[in-house]
Task: structure prediction
Amino acid sequence: MADLDGARIGMYGWANSGSIWYRHFLSWLGVDLSRLRWCVGPVDAPRAESIVRSLPEGVSEPPEGKSLSDMLIAGNLDAMYSPPRPERYHPHDGPIARLFPDFRPLEKRYCRETGAFPPQHLIVLRRAVWEANPWIARSLTDAFIRCNQAAAEAYRGFPYASPWMEAELEEAAELMGEDFYGDGLEKNRHQIELFAETGHGAGLTAGRVTVEDYFREYIAGDNA
Result:
């Protein structure tokens, strides 16, 4: 990973959950995060005005009228992270390509060595709604778990969303177990701890936030 030492890297958001996992991945690769120069902004269409309110020293935004893709193609960035495929990406002849063309073995090794298949999103409720009707939280959680289970069963029972979906599912299960979209706190505890540690290392939290800090009321509710 010597090519990324001191590199200029574009990222769609500074404090987004995905951005924290990107940092963790780079750190796992052996990249010194303190030497990277970051640029935070839109991947494709430039914004009319900045929506970033506060960025750390040394973290910049694209010039007015420019996107991260513009900067990458022009040579003003060395690499960028993008959750969706950039519009000008093509694996063979596009001006934007993958940094790791054969990414599957690398991602499998990351999963084996770190124990992480990064979760990102939470279902949230307004506090007033939850306090007035605490049963909603458990019912909503149970409903999403059942939907996830139904989707997994459908894929396994009729795995033809792509020509090789069955092989994909078997390969994923061999690496991560059948329940690789595991729900609930304990199944994700290790990954939450990695997330919290990486966020603190990036200066996004003033102190190290524990799993119990994040989900104190949830844990208290289960023990009530």
The radius of gyration is 20 Å. Residues 2-101 form one domain. The chain has a mean pLDDT of 88. The chain has two domains: 2-101, 127-223.
